[in-house]
Hints:
Layout: E1 4-7, H1 11-23, E2 28-31, H2 34-41, E3 48-52, H3 60-70, E4 76-81, H4 85-93, E5 98-102, H5 106-128, H6 141-152, E6 160-163, H7 170-179, E7 188-192, H8 198-206, H9 223-226, E8 231-235, H10 242-254, E9 256-257, E10 266-267, E11 271-276, H11 280-285, H12 291-297, E12 300-303, H13 314-329, E13 335-336, H14 338-346, H15 352-366, E14 371-372, H16 379-391, H17 394-413, H18 419-438, H19 443-450, H20 454-463
Parallel strand pairs: 1-2, 1-3, 3-4, 4-5, 6-11, 6-12, 7-8, 8-11, 13-14
Antiparallel strand pairs: 9-10
Amino acid sequence: MKPIWIVDDDKSIRWVLEKALTRENIACKLFASAREALQALEEEAPQVLVSDIRMPGASGLELLQAIKEKHPGLPVIIMTAYSDLESAVAAFQGGAFEYLPKPFDVENAIELIRRAIEESMRETAAEETVEESPEILGAAASMQEVFRAIGRLSQSHATVLINGESGSGKELVARALHRHSPRAAKAFIAINTAAIPKDLLESELFGHERGAFTGAQTMRRGRFEQAEAGTLFLDEIGDMPAELQTRLLRVLSDGQFYRVGGHQPVKANVRVIAATHQDLEKRVRDGLFREDLFHRLNVIRLRLPSLRERREDIPLLAKHFMTTSARELGVDPKRISEAALKYLSALDWPGNVRQLENTCHWLTVMAPAQTIEVADLPQDLRAAKSESGASGGGTLDADWVKSLEQEVTRRLATGESAIGDDLTRQFETALIKNALKHTGGRRIEAAQLLGMGRNTITRKIADLKIEGDDKS
């Protein structure tokens, strides 16, 4: 690992950070000015740069700008006095990883530097494996099945029916099927049959002749003609009106259709890919969808899993969407902390991938910090988790409380005293041990997760005689 660079005109600050980093076996280099650091940057680069914001000569913001031009992925921590909050905002806008307010707690500073080192390692690994983003992301086994199906269909012209909840990516799969098919050089035309009024849908699909109805002043080609020799994607096919189901069946059966108001058949050389979030078999049983059309569409069927069925993909997707949102807005991408990623992964996402993408776009615009924590997430997501925990996790909570009540009852029946003290010690021991295990022994992070102060958790660890590595 490359050394950490400390840039500050205050010798005492440099000394304190050097001693603390040395104690943690982290190499560092010290610079008394931004000019010195810029000169060194011509030959090498640090793992992480920690710089004061106000120094004689070039400022920390100027140093930040120079670093970002040469090494955009390098984490920069800006040290600033409380009176410099406006400068801190400018630091974030310039791409700073985080800012460290003065006077600072040395342990907090080291913890922040550790986080920056981890981020730097991830950035380095990402740079070493830079490649074009895949058209569909997913490492879950259920998504691998979808990818395999797309591969098997790569030389096929067969009709495909895609089942999946709203927002799960049905159109992305349809586009991938088209791109990997013999028709890839021709048009891909998509239409949401549920979004177009019934009276207009027929004309949208099949076109119309001049004078076919009031306002039809010219002949218009419909989506079938626009997709000639290519692919037509019919989204939300389950909502198609009955009379249009009949016309679609005729196209699929005969390979030709009539424009609205037309008398000459038009040949249709089109591959149809249909999609729905509904249970088409049930709609057939209920008389809402033609059975013969269902069988025509159901030649090859793909089921797209919901996001809650592939939770392991949520961190991957979230990071991807944060990057793409930042690129679209022309800003530096924000980072999502591990705690926030775990929180997002536990949500049910009724809107699936589309909802996650919209959330990431919101975070890119609205989250105040460059590193997003759970508290930065939209209020509706935090409320949804609370409601989910209150309903979905109710049994677990009830069992836990019931077990505690039974233990209290048992101890009272045996005449024990000081029950509260003993149970409280056991409870706090379990809390702190598991929090430390979760954070890899980092006390400050564990204290934050438990809602304790750093001094409080240190005192309790000593009082409760909790053993483990001290990674405060």
